[in-house]
Design a protein that fits this description.
The protein has 323 residues and is of the alpha+beta class. The chain is built from seven helices and 18 strands.
C-alpha cells in the first residue's frame, strides 16, 4: 500500500463515466438501451447521455456522433468535493502535466487532464441528479445494467502508467506479473472493490473496455438473449466466464462501432487498507481464467483509440493479459 492511498493529493472517489464517439447515434442508443438496459437521461441530435438503473448521476456513458471513427474522448472520475478540483489543477500544474478546465453538459466544473503522454481523463465533483430507476421494474430492459464499475486501458508500460495513478491515490488491489517480476496487469481502485482502472500491457494508449455491473446471472444471460434477438448475437465476443482477479463472472459485447462493453456480477470487496496487493502469475493461465473459453485474437489485439492521441510505437499489440 502506498501512503498516497490514505493521503492523496486530492480525493478521487470512483470511476464516473466514459465518453465515446459513434457513427450512428440511433443504432448506438438502441444497443445500450435494449441490450445493456441503460436509461437515457438526455439526448440531442448529436449526443446521448445514459446511466444505469441504480445511478442518480446524470450519466455514466456519453455517446457523441462524429465522423472520425470509433474513439474514446475521455475517461471520467469523480472527486469528493469541488475543492478537490482546485487541488488537482495545482498538482498537475506543478508536475507540468496537461490540465485544463472544460465545459461538460450535465456536470459541474470539470478538469481534463493527461499525464506523461498517457490517455485523457476528466475529473468532476458534481452532476445533475436524475431519478433512480432501480425500483421501476417495468422500465427495466436487457441486462438491467446497474452502474458503471471500471474501465480497462491498454498501455505500453504498465509500471510507468500505474505509478502515475498510484501517486494520485489509487491502490493496487491485484496485479499480474511475469516470472521476472515485471507487472503486465494492474488493478487499481479508489472505491471498495478491486478495480476502478485496470491497466494491461499492449500497444496504446487505448481503451480496451468499460464494465457495468448487473445484478445476477439471469440478467447477464438476458443480455445475451437480447443480443441474439436483436441481431447482435455475433457481437457476444467472449464469455460467460470467470476471471481469477476480482473473482468476477463476465461477458463481453461489441457495440455497433466496435467499442467493447463488459457486463459483470457485483465484484468482491476490498475494505481494509492494510490488505496487500494480490499478485497473479502470468504463466498460470488456469488461475487467471479458471473457466470459460480463452480470449480470441481480436479480443487481445483490438481496442478503441483515444481521440487525437497517437499510439506509442512501443508495446506489443498482442501482449495481452487475459482479464
Amino acid at each position: 500500500m502506498t501512503d498516497s492511498y490514505l493521503n492523496p493529493p486530492f480525493r478521487i472517489t470512483r470511476t464516473s463515466h466514459v465518453r465515446l464517439t459513434v457513427a450512428d447515434l440511433d443504432a448506438s442508443c438502441a444497443f445500450y438501451e435494449s441490450l445493456a438496459g441503460l436509461c437515457v437521461s438526455e439526448r440531442t441530435e448529436t449526443e446521448a447521455y445514459l446511466r444505469g438503473v441504480e445511478e442518480v448521476a446524470h450519466h455514466s456513458l456519453v455517446l457523441r456522433q462524429a465522423g472520425i471513427g470509433a474513439t474514446c474522448d475521455a475517461i471520467g472520475f469523480r472527486v469528493l468535493e469541488p475543492r478537490d478540483l482546485d487541488l488537482a489543477k495545482a498538482w498537475f500544474d506543478a508536475r507540468g502535466d496537461s490540465a485544463e478546465w472544460v465545459e461538460r453538459h450535465g456536470q459541474g466544473r470539470t478538469l481534463l487532464a493527461r499525464m506523461d503522454e498517457g490517455f485523457p481523463f476528466e475529473l468532476t465533483a458534481e452532476m445533475t441528479l436524475m431519478p433512480r430507476v432501480l425500483t421501476d421494474y417495468a422500465a427495466h430492459r436487457g441486462g438491467r445494467a446497474l452502474r458503471l464499475d471500471h474501465v480497462q486501458a491498454v498501455v505500453p508500460d504498465v509500471e510507468a502508467t500505474g505509478k502515475g495513478f498510484l501517486d494520485l491515490g489509487f491502490r493496487a488491489a491485484e496485479a499480474i506479473a511475469e516470472p521476472t517480476g515485471r507487472r503486465i496487469g494492474l488493478f487499481l481502485h479508489r472505491k471498495n472493490n478491486p478495480h476502478d482502472l485496470v491497466l494491461a500491457m499492449g500497444q496504446g494508449p487505448r481503451l480496451h473496455h468499460f464494465a457495468f455491473v448487473t445484478a445476477d446471472l439471469q440478467s447477464m444471460f438476458r443480455a445475451c438473449d437480447t443480443a441474439g434477438n436483436l441481431g447482435f448475437g455475433p457481437d457476444v465476443e467472449r464469455g460467460p466466464g470467470r476471471h481469477g482477479p476480482g473473482n468476477g463472472a463476465f461477458v463481453y459485447f461489441r457495440d455497433p462501432d466496435g467499442h467493447r462493453l463488459e457486463m459483470i456480477l457485483p465484484p468482491m470487496q476490498f475494505m481494509d487498507a492494510e490488505e496487500p496487493t494480490h499478485v497473479w502469475s502470468s504463466v498460470e493461465k488456469h488461475q487467471i481464467v479458471p473457466w470459460g473459453a480463452p480470449a480470441s485474437q481480436r479480443w487481445r489485439e483490438e481496442a478503441t483509440p483515444f481521440t487525437d492521441v497517437a499510439l506509442s510505437t512501443e508495446g506489443d499489440p498482442a501482449r495481452w493479459v487475459s482479464t
